[in-house]
Write a structure and sequence with these properties.
Number of strands: 17
Number of helices: 2
Order of helices and strands: EEEEEEEEEEHEEEEEEEH
Strand order of the largest sheet: 3-4-7-8-13-14-15-16-17
Length: 306
């Protein structure tokens, strides 16, 4: 990201600029354990699943960052601050094979089903726990400021750090299947996709450096379709529509009112508007290996149980 603004100092025009770049790669192999229990009280069925927090098997990451500024010392209120003391500065680093602590929280899910000869209704919900802010990647604690002729051995601490956090969230879903004919079913459903605000970049890097804020939306999905059975296979065609509900109206950045002490960002407001609409086509094909080898009488029994 590059920000520039023109100004005048002692009747001489000049340009102030701030340039930030960041790249992250996180490789991991985690183990996830689940505990579940199910009960069948025809025509009702119930289930409960507990997903434990992720356990580490193997993880490593790469973190690359650069941060530079030019002419930030002119009109600076506090000229003793390192970044506003000299005409230019550069902080950059590239660290590989860092230990990573990428984590996913525990969750609790429940579900229920009601089934009759021609109607099947399913309901489910899942609650995800939160995670406090933690270091996903952390390199050396100190990064040197260049040029060395001006800054000497001065450093910025905690520059090579990638942080993350997760908010608790609860999602629900409900769906219905209606048998129109023995081999034709009408499908419909609704589900929520609330955002747990898991975030890595850019505003979770180093809080001492002003950066962007990331907008968040909650999504609501509505779907419908038709499923056609051809003996040993099912063909499904449908459509999914979703729209977003904004969860945080804070604008990402303000570049029209630059403030030098905020690294050319202006004060952000909480009046951002957004419109999110998605339409997707659902195409599905299911082949039943076991069903293709059953007799016609056995297939009839399975069809009745559907």
């Amino acid at each position: 990201m590059s920000l520039n603004t023109d100004a005048v100092y002692n009747s001489v025009p000049y340009t102030v600029s701030v340039i930030e770049n960041a790249a992250v790669q996180v490789d991991y192999l985690n183990f996830i354990a689940k505990l579940f229990i199910a009960a069948d009280f025809k025509p009702f069925r119930f289930g409960l699943t507990i997903t434990l927090p992720t356990a580490k098997i193997w993880r490593q990451g790469t973190l690359t960052k650069s941060f530079e500024g030019h002419n930030m010392n002119l009109y600076a209120i506090e000229t003793t601050a390192l970044l506003f003391k000299y005409p230019s500065f550069l902080v950059s680093d590239d660290q590989r094979r860092l230990k990573t602590r990428y984590k996913q929280p525990a969750s609790f899910a429940f579900g229920g089903e009601y089934k009759s000869k021609r109607v099947k209704i399913k309901l489910s919900g899942e609650y995800f726990l939160s995670l406090p802010t933690y270091d996903v990647l952390k390199g050396k604690d100190e990064s040197y400021i260049r040029p060395a002729s001006a800054y000497g051995t001065n450093v910025i601490k905690n520059f090579m750090v990638l942080k993350s956090s997760v908010r608790k969230v609860f999602n629900v879903a409900i769906g219905g299947t209606f048998k129109l004919k023995n081999n034709v079913k009408f499908l419909t459903g609704f589900r929520t996709d609330f955002n747990n605000r898991m975030n890595f970049t850019p505003n979770q890097f180093d809080k001492s450096l002003a950066s962007l804020s990331t907008p968040y939306w909650h999504l609501l999905h509505f779907s419908t379709g038709i499923s056609y059975n051809r003996g040993s296979n099912d063909i499904t065609v449908g459509v999914d529509y979703s729209f977003g509900v904004i969860a945080d109206r804070t604008s990402s950045i303000n570049v029209t009112e630059p403030i030098q002490e905020r690294l050319l960002r202006g004060n952000v407001s909480s009046i951002m508007r957004s419109s999110i609409n998605n339409i997707g086509v659902i195409l599905g094909y299911t082949y039943f290996f076991r069903g293709s080898m059953l007799s016609s009488e056995q297939k009839s029994e399975i069809s009745e149980d559907w």
